[in-house]
Amino acid sequence: MSDPETVRFQCDTSSIDWQDLVSLFELTRLGGREGDKVRRAFENSTVVCFAFDGSKLIGAARALSDREYHATVYDVAVHPEYQGRGIGTRLMKQLIGMLPVWRVLLVADGDAMEFYQRLGFEPFGDVMGRVDNAKLFDTD
Ligand SMILES: CC(C)(COP(=O)(O)OP(=O)(O)OC[C@H]1O[C@@H](n2cnc3c(N)ncnc32)[C@H](O)[C@@H]1OP(=O)(O)O)[C@@H](O)C(=O)NCCC(=O)NCCS
Asked: N or C: more exposed end of the chain, with fewer CB within 10 A?
């Protein structure tokens, strides 16, 4: 495993192996999704960022934004063998650095709340959401 200093960050979708990304999600509690829908979601995102150790995909994050006022962050993941070494923080800082907006929202799943609080996020009052689980998967 490389030193964290040698980790490479890439903020576009060129040459991403989408199956590697699906595998990363499986390892980090963000799994259960299939390749092509994941690829389209990242390609349709406003900003993306990936982390690599050599050619190994070890981190990912993406956001949707109007590039003026609002952004929403999704799919932040660091490979379990690389967690706790500052890679998630660097991924998030790269992502936020590309978003010159007033407000950034995200859903802090599980115990990730403390991780986001260290990056300046805090619980946000009146946020509401609606989910349609049928749209989690491609339909043939
Ligand atoms: C959350 C996640 C992206 C953090 O990535 P990471 O590379 O481990 O984070 P960092 O090493 O930059 O951690 C920064 C700080 O946050 C803390 N932290 C990181 N993950 C944490 C967690 N799950 N719970 C509590 N604190 C956490 C670290 O202790 C660290 O503090 P330190 O600087 O005092 O050591 C990573 O743990 C992960 O992929 N988790 C599984 C998927 C997930 O939960 N994603 C978020 C969904 S909303």
From this structure: C
What pLDDT score does 136 carry? 86
Q: Distance from the CA of 127 to the center of ligand 1, in angstroms?
A: 23
pTM here is 0.93
d(CA 121, CA 60): 19
Pocket test of ligand 1: the residue of 93, 115, 124 to mutate, having most ligand atoms within 8 Å of its CB, is 115
The Cβ-side half-sphere exposure at 73, using a 13 Å CA radius, reads 26
Rg (CA), the chain: 15
Domain topology for 4-135:
Aminopeptidase (3.40.630)
All structural domains of the chain with their residue ranges:
4-135
Q: Which residues contact 69 (CB under 8 A, 6 or more apart)?
A: 101, 102, 103
Residue 82 appears among annotated catalytic residues? no
Report the relative pairing of strands 70-78 and 56-65 from DSSP bridges: antiparallel
Percent helix, strand and coil across the chain, each rounded to 5?
A: 35, 25, 40
Secondary structure of residue 15 in the 3-state scheme: coil
